[in-house]
Amino acid sequence: MLVDVQSTLEEVAARVRPLVGQGRPAGYIPALAEVPVDRFGMAVAEVDGRVHGVGDCATPFSVQSLSKVFTLALAGDVADRVGREPSPLAFDSLAQLEQDRGVPRNPFLNAGALVTTDRLLTRTGDAAGALCRFLAEETAAPVGVDARVAASERSTGHRNVALAHLIAGYGKLDNPVDDVLDHYIRGCAIALSCADLARAALFLARGGVGATGPVLPAADAKRLNATMLVCGMYDGAGEFAYRVGLPAKSGVGGGILAVVPNRCVVCVWSPGLDRCGNSVAGVAALEAFTVLTGWSVF
Ligand SMILES: NC(=O)CC[C@H](N)C(=O)O
How far is residue 132 from each of residues 101, 117, 137, 210, measured CA to CA in Å? Predict the structure, then answer.
């Protein structure tokens, strides 16, 4: 089937319009709660580099947990400190971490991302800086941290502080807890548009090859996609696989990154979240996109 990506995006935007504004923005980070819920943007970056977009696709938003994909890609092997099984509990669950005795069940839970941030910090000396540099290279645009969002999360992120201390209590952080938290929070507070995020994640659709060369060996890119498929949408991963059928990662800023291997990366943004922290209109848009294009891994 020949797909006109631009007109498909316009059709998707029209179909999900009634859902935009449903759900709630992430209230536990006050700066995110202020973002208007009526925003909707979607972009597709094809493996040949062409980018298409609709709505607010060029508006920067807070990437939040989308950063965890890039942190994991840059951190190297973390298998000794973090698992790769889905979690039935929420992304910030302390009970899950305690049950798993300080070895987070997967790298996309907050606990897992704290561990990958710790590893990236050891590897580079500046985890948040390494993320920004990587994203700037892949998008050929300047990339920065939204200091207001970072300060906001720093003042209310008690659960992440508790998670980090619990991991450290199990002897499984190499850097000081406060440094790991600081780099994690700044990585989450990076602001990027759908178009730039789709571009930056293209290595996942291209067997590990990024804008300027290999980011990961192909086997590792395959594993990262598999981890996204199983764990990227948290306790909504099963429902998302059923409705959409793509490796994906959500963030509480309302973004979702989804990979169609060997074809494209899709990024959608709309701030209203469901009970798992996934964008309501974003999930619906990806479902409509896969139905209209027939593009899925299944
Ligand atoms: N799911 C998310 O996007 C969570 C990221 C957020 N910064 C947090 O730590 O709670």
Answer: 32, 13, 9, 15
Task: Give residue 65 CA to ligand 1 midpoint distance, Å.
Answer: 5
Digit-coded pLDDT (tens) for 81-134:
999 999 999 999 999 999 999 999 999 999 999 999 999 999 999 999 999 999
Task: Specify the ligand 1 atom closest to the Cα of 277.
Answer: 1
Q: Give residue 185's domain range.
A: 5-293
161 part of a folded domain:
yes
What are the φ/ψ torsions at residue 258 (nearest 5 degrees)?
-130, 145
pTM metric for this prediction: 0.97
Instruction: Tell whether 298 is covered by a domain.
Output: no
How far is residue 290 CA from its own chain's centroid?
19
Residue ranges of the binding site for substrate: 65, 110, 153, 160, 184, 234, 252
Distance 113 CA to ligand 1 centre (A): 10
pLDDT tens track for 11-59:
999 999 999 999 999 999 999 999 999 999 999 999 999 999 999 999 9
Q: How many domains does the chain have?
A: 1
Output DSSP code: residue 296.
S
- In this structure, what CATH number is given to the domain that contains residue 82? 3.40.710.10
Enumerate residues lining ligand 1, CB below 6 A: 64-65, 91-92, 110, 153, 160, 188, 251-252, 277
Is 96 within the bounds of a domain? yes
